[in-house]
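Journal club prep, shared notes

We agreed each person brings one worked example of a sequence with its structure written out as tokens. Mine is Zn(2)-C6 fungal-type domain-containing protein. I'm keeping it raw so we can talk through how to read the token line rather than staring at a rendered picture. Sequence first:
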Amino acid sequence: MATSRGSDSHKRPLPMDTDGARVLTASHPNPAKYPRKRVSVACEVCRLRKTRCDAARPKCRFCSNAGIECVYRQTDSGPSPNSKPPDAPSLDSQVSSQDLATLLARVQVLLQARAASTPSDAPLVPTSLPWSINQDATEQQQEPPATTSSAGYDGLEQVNSQPSAQPSPSAVFTESPAAEHSDLPCLVGLSLYGFAKTATKPCPKQLEPLLFDDGEDYLEHEHEYNQRILDPAVYVDIKDVDLSVKACWRNQQSFAKSVLPWVPVFDQQLCAKLVQEVSANGFDSCDPASSLGLFVLALGALSRAGDESSQTSVSETPGLGYFRIASRKLDVAANGQDTVTIAQCFVLKASYLLLCLRTLAAFDAVHVASTIIARQMARKKWLEQETGRFEACHRVYLTCYILEHELRAVIHYGTELHQYERLAMPLFHTHEPGFFWLLSEIALRQIYMNALCGVGSTARVAYAPRVAQELISQLDQWYEHLHPTVKFPLGPEPVLDTQKAFLRAQYYAARFQVNWSYVVQFLTTIDLGVDIDEKSIMLDGAQRAIEYASLVISSAQSLCQDRHLMLFTNLICTFAVAMMLLCIIDVPEFASLHDLTTTVAAIHQARSILSYWAEINPSISVNLGRLDALMRAKGMDMAPLEVACNNLS
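Then the structure, token by token:
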């Protein structure tokens, strides 16, 4: 042994040799008796846990602190001469695996008890993770990098007595108060954060009413409705719904007139053929075609009763029986299948829920359809085998594209179909009512996306006058190139065609959104002092924003009198624009930019629109409450226009 040690003294010591000599100096006065590998003298508990052991006799530090029995293997060199006799009788040298498992179980129980008794102000360090803190500060500085991965329980005692400068990941999340999470992304619920502040400046005081969090209330309302409309305890048999020839034709005609132009997933000829075939079979099968036909009848029944918007009970919703049977059949048919017909079923299911103003459940259905159709679009060879497949896939793809974008006002995530700018247009072989509307809406979506800077609470206003001018130029070109069948007149006069009126409201909303950046920038820099020319530019943009805000609300007046597929978009836009108008209505610098009577009338008009639908939708009722509270804070209350204007002036 002495000769071997002498021959090794001229070699460069390994990291473990250096570490072993250092530890041995503290507990063993004879370095020659200490093996080259520290694991050779580690106790059985530390050996199995693969943690550092100081090899102290009769108990190492870990076993002593944990209050468990420390067991060492017998070696040829025998016990250390300085070791004391054990306090308890030792086990045999050959310890069974069952005994070791029992010891480890006791160790885990003791560790959990120690973690439970740790003070709340001490950092929490998981003992089972490899990045636990080492024994002490001096040893940590001298420890070679090769041995840091074996750190374990040795430092837990010092962690409890002395807080570490590097807390564990769990401590980072558990110790932060909830108030500090106000800037976390808001993925669900209506959020106007993006209209309240720029990317680098805090929110102006005038726009603070826009910083509300609607996520939790929104989820509660939507989940409650979903449980009622899709209650598994309510079973609707196919015999409980009207499947007469008259009912099928009336509902089918209403669907083709009021719903299909908004979601042209197939043409009218295919719709008529579909309903005729599945009605001949009695809707008994669970194939996707049967479910699709029942969704057509459900949407037709609901769209025919569009003027009956005062139902407060879910059971009174027209077409609900068709819808529940179709949903049950779809769950069976969609099990493990991804076909275009199933994607069409989910689109129609989402359409029914949108007519009921239930956006969360509608998004869930659209999301499934988007996922299915995105996968089908990747099967290029399969699409080329039949001419109708390509058109059917692109119809569903672009319909999901539009619905997902409209739902981003309350659901801020999805399949991100809108990020693909190269969109193949569907091949319409016949003149369909929704053909030019779909193409015009797709083009407008791209301009909308260019004007957005994030979603939810992560959104911010980007003040870039040149970009704003380019977007306005694109909006002008979009309007100039509209087809005569969907081109709308500019101005506040009502438009009877629903799709034309919707395009006009979206056009005004886009121009308002682009010019709103001038309002936010002006309120942000009002106390900092800006150049006169720059101030003039911002005031001109603010004036245009106020003008288009009034036009948005007046355009929504005719759209919100009856159910249509995009009604939820108009209601959200009306509330948002009215809130933003209220925030700046009493700004002195904006007093000369608008007619106060006209602006107050627009706000009252928005409130009237929302109150009409607040009876059947709790989310709209909550938004109406926010609007009323801000009106009272501004001195408007629900007084007549003359009184409200006098209070503001």
